Amino acid sequence: MADKKEFLSAVFKGLQPAATECGFKPVYPDGADKSEAPVQEENGAAFIEYSGEGKAFRIEHFNDRIYLYGAAKEGRIAKADYTVLDESLLEMEAANDKDIRYVINNYSDTLVENFGTKVVKPVKSKIPTPVSKAQAKSGAVSYDPNTLASRFTAIYPELREAYKENCEKYGRFLPEDFFLNYGNAKVLDVIRRNDPTEMKRLFKLFNEIYDDGTNETQSLICVTILGSLENDMELLANCADYMSADLASPVINVNKYLASKGGKGARMKLDNPPPYKPKKKKANMMSKLGM
């Protein structure tokens, strides 16, 4: 399926029960045929909007991602009032019926969770707002650990719920907790299988985030995630053709260090991070390793 309108039309049909339950009606542009899904296009994005009493939501596909935006306020709701409630990676050229079902089921649950009560409360995003590519490339801000996790779970949506639960449990995103308990297992599985398509997709993400990431984010990739390869030469060889030169060097050095006699203490700390203590700044992982 390579047509945005066709995909959104299918999502529109599947979302109707949840939208109706939550008190929403689709917004049709003037003169639009109401027997069809009200798919609109603007600046490269395709979207459908819904409105209700003091609330609204929007399904939008843009730049290989599909977003669910929501808002709740008195009076007119403008685009700037929307908050990202959920998002998924969606390369339209490869989209299929499974992707349609995933979007319908997941976003229906999110709608009911946010709007399925008689009293509508102001919408609060479940997840911190990720840094956009434009922001990172402009140098205005660098990619943070949350952005890495947000985009990682867009590639692997089966981990999205664990990511959300992490944010909700701690009131912020704790990267070591998420990756050590969930994300690293997926990374190791992909690297062991060494499928070229999957490896390209995974390391395209790692290379991009590393290049324009904060020191904490770079440490997260090199130490917490790829440090879990435990200096396994076969696994590192699988990664060699996909890592950028900037990423490859620190990853190899970190793995050597963690496998050395001097790195045993650091490996124990990495595998057994201290319990989360609110309001205390976490030390940079590279600093923990003395590197």
How would you characterize this protein structure?
The protein is an alpha+beta fold and 291 residues long. 50% of the residues lie in helices and 12% in strands. The protein has twelve helices and six strands. It has helices spanning 4-21, 97-115, 133-138, 145-155, 160-170, 175-193, 196-211, 215-225, 233-240, 245-259, 264-271, 285-288; strands at residues 25-26, 40-42, 45-52, 55-62, 65-72, 83-89. Strands 1, 2, 3, 4, 5 and 6 form a six-stranded antiparallel sheet that branches. Helix 1 packs parallel to helix 2 (97-115), helix 4 (145-155) packs across helix 6 (175-193) and helix 4 (145-155) packs antiparallel against helix 7. The radius of gyration is 21 Å and the shape is elongated.
Properties at a glance:
291 residues, alpha+beta, elongated
Helix content: 40-55%
Low-confidence stretches: 279-291
- Can you count the helices? 12
Percent strand equals: 5-15%
Shape: elongated
Encode the helix/strand succession as letters.
HEEEEEEHHHHHHHHHHH
Mean pLDDT: 84
For the record, give the distance between the C-alpha atoms at the N and C termini, rounded to a whole number: 48 Å
